[in-house]
Amino acid sequence: MFSSGKSVTVIGGGLAGCEAAWQIAQLNVPVLLYEMRPKVMTPAHKTDKLAELVCSNSLRSDLIDKPAGLLKEEMRRLGSLIIRCADQAALPGGGALTVDREKFAQLVTEAIENHPLIKVVREMVAKIPESGPVVIATGPLTHDLLANEIRQLIGAEFLYFYDAVSPIVDAETIDYSKCFWGARYRDEPAYLNCPMTEEEYRRFWEELISAERHEPHEFEKAIFFEGCLPIEEMAKRGYLTLVYGPLRPTGLIDPRTQKQPFAVVQLRPENAEMTMFNLVGFQTSLKWSEQKRVFRLIPGLENAEFLRYGYIHRNTYINSPAALKPTYQFKRRDDLFFAGQLTGVEGYIESAASGLVAGINAARYVRGEPLLVFPAETAIGALAHYITTANPKHFAPMNINFGLLPPLERKVRPKELRYRLMAARSLEKLEKFIDQHKLHRGEGKYEGQL
Ligand SMILES: Cc1cc2nc3c(=O)[nH]c(=O)nc-3n(C[C@H](O)[C@H](O)[C@H](O)COP(=O)(O)OP(=O)(O)OC[C@H]3O[C@@H](n4cnc5c(N)ncnc54)[C@H](O)[C@@H]3O)c2cc1C
Fold first, then answer.
1. Ligand 1 atom index nearest CA of 37
2. CA dihedral 284, 285, 288, 293 (to 10 degrees)
3. Can you tell me the distance from the alpha carbon of 376 to that of 429, in angstroms, rounded to the nearest whole number?
4. Does 397 sit in the ligand 1 pocket, CB within 6 Å?
5. Mean pLDDT across the chain, nearest whole number?
6. pLDDT tens profile 69-98
7. Is residue 187 included in any domain, yes or no?
8. What confidence tens digit (pLDDT) does each residue in 270-298 have?
9. Out of 73-82, 113-122, 184-193, 261-270, which region has the weakest mean confidence (pLDDT)?
10. Fewer Cβ close by (within 10 Å): the C or N end of the chain?
């Protein structure tokens, strides 16, 4: 039965909140889980079920040499409730883990509601509880009253209400012979510049303005900020708008021609290891296939692999590099944890993965045990590492991808082999970590196969 011992309050019964609650309870610590639905609904959720998938029913790849597949395997080995229920609700989906969404949400709801140490309270939480531990996992559509509280706690400049995200490419797939390093007017290798001739620019512009766009949800349409206009929207304003905007060549001299190019696309390193580059100013709502087709017209990116595509949608998230520790604790209050999309991880499984770590740590906090930072070589650890060490000035939510993991000691090609080796390294590190900290062990799908 629910005990009166020291409990953890989890706010939000989505992917992250349910995983956190489960992990805490599995460590014998009681949980109070608050979920506002069905009393108060979000603009995207349609049911009263916990862990409702708001859009696609795909949890992406389940192959071990794909980043989403590796993350799932790690979560299986750590006894994840979300992945266990997804496996049980799986539909035939080729290499992807696609689920029957009703069955999935039903399984999670039953597991949570039937756990003797979890009490589900169907109430909207408007204030951050003063006594902890508390895990806030209220997601991208956090209720406004609580969002206001979070904003007051961490500072208005650290909470965002929309996302304007530019694509990110794999550094190994850039053709450096066509680019040059440099910053505007400064002799600093801050950006990798992709110069364009007028002919190249014209072709790019023509394809950009006629490319197919993603249709936004009704509630997302209202949110349109001049400061984060999609690049295709800007391009439609005129042939030269981009040349005077994000593609302006001013102050950039191509060392090979000693001239200023007609236009320049700037790529900014996304992490200190420089394994990923962000296309500066390329927030976009083009379909993913169109982004790949059109952005590969940029000189140097002809064969670029996209680690993340650009998008624009409503999203509440905190600037985690400024606010959180890699244990998912708030820097200024040790008994306050954040988890899920609110922390700047992006996607269903990433949200659940952050809930898993926050949950384990909240339980360890109650039990007086040292808190855990997962190894950066694991996908689960790499996510926490990224959201807490990225540049706070340009922080934007991120899916799991191999660019987040430290590179291998030597260069390995082809990339399929490289990813397999990275996956093997991750699982080896994780196994040791599980033993070292005596964590619960779940059954993996790929055990003994790498
Ligand atoms: C419209 C939309 C579509 C998306 N589509 C996809 C997709 O197709 N694939 C993908 O991988 N990711 C998608 N995402 C991104 C993200 O992965 C999901 O939003 C994911 O559900 C995030 O998990 P979470 O646990 O952080 O939040 P959620 O799953 O949203 O859970 C948060 C929960 O907290 C509750 N809540 C909010 N405020 C309060 C409060 N004050 N008190 C109590 N309860 C509260 C909510 O009702 C909700 O149940 C989408 C996001 C949005 C907004």
1. 47
2. -60
3. 9
4. no
5. 92
6. 999 999 999 999 999 999 999 987 678 898
7. yes
8. 887 889 999 999 999 899 999 999 999 99
9. 184-193
10. N
Domain contains 121: yes
Enclosing domain of residue 150: 8-164+314-436
Domain final residue pick, 288, 309, 330: 309
3-state secondary structure 227-269: HHCCHHHHHHCCCCCCCCCCCCCCCCCECCCCECCCEEEEEEE
What CATH number did the domain enclosing 62 receive? 3.50.50.60
Residues 175 and 132 in one domain: no
What's the pLDDT at 3? 47
Residue 351 near ligand 1, beta carbon < 6 Å: yes
Question: 189 lies in a domain?
Answer: yes
* 370 alpha carbon – ligand 1 mean position (Å): 30
Q: What is the pLDDT of residues 384-434, one digit of tens each?
A: 999 999 988 888 889 999 999 999 999 888 989 999 999 999 999 999 999
pLDDT of residue 94: 74
Does one domain contain both 212 and 353? no
Number of domains in the chain: 2
Q: What tens digit of pLDDT does each residue of 343-392 get?
A: 999 999 999 999 999 999 999 999 999 999 999 999 999 999 999 999 88
Question: Is residue 27 in a domain?
Answer: yes
Q: Which of 294, 309, 324 is the last residue of a domain?
A: 309
**Residue 147 near ligand 1, beta carbon < 6 Å:** no
Of 148, 348, 356, the residue with max ligand 1 atoms within 8 A of its CB, to mutate for a pocket test, comes to: 348
CA dist., res. 448 & res. 445, Å (int): 9
Are the C-beta atoms of 194 and 179 separated by less than 8 Å?
Answer: yes
Please report the pLDDT score of residue 184 as a whole number: 78
N residues, the chain:
450
Report the distance separating Cα 430 and Cα 448, nearest Å: 14
